[in-house]
Amino acid sequence: MERWEIEARLNRSRASLLETYAAMSTAERGRPATHSALNAEVEWTAGDHFLHIIDPEQQVVEAIRRQVAGDEFPYPALFGSDGARLTPDVFLPIIHAKNDAWLADHRRLTFDEIVALGAGVRARTLLVLSELTVEQLAEPLRNMPWSVFAASIAELFMLIAQHGESHYAQAAKGVEARSASA
Questions:
Q1: What is the distance between the alpha carbons of residues 57 and 69, in angstroms, rounded to a whole number?
Q2: Percent of the chain that is helix, strand, coil (3-state, to 5)
Q3: C-alpha angle with apex 62: 5 to 121, nearest 5 degrees?
Q4: CATH number of the domain that 99 lies in?
Q5: Which of 69, 132, 134, 157 sits between 20 and 30 A of 175, alpha carbons compared?
Q6: Per residue in 23-59, pLDDT tens?
Q7: Range of the domain at 161
């Protein structure tokens, strides 16, 4: 996979999400879409899905930085205090709780502030992409939860783009289903 392909994919995905969410009214972005993966009493709005994609992107980029720097465990949340890898039934609720907490801390942001926050994170993503060698992009992932979806650092960058698109699809499906049942 070529660097230009990764950059183009990241840029197309971000532009598409920006245009799609900007075309929504504030009321549309505020409509309940899905429930939290951790707590069925917590609803995520369509706008929450747009906001949510920012934090995992920063987490992924930080893990990439750590791996390239030689850290054997670039995503520490995947491991317990004893150093043992957590099982999905333990790890996933921790991640879902962090997602809900991050959203709760950032829901007060306006759409413009969310766009700006996302732009800053994407700029850092593109900076890290620009700093990696071809060999580093081809490195297999080491001790990361995304190894199920991506085999290399290059593929992990592509997963960032897919994550946003996936959340938009979830939000759209959720809003549509709730509208149909109303």
A1: 18
A2: 70, 5, 25
A3: 65
A4: 1.20.120.450
A5: 157
A6: 999 999 999 999 999 998 999 999 999 999 999 999 9
A7: 3-181
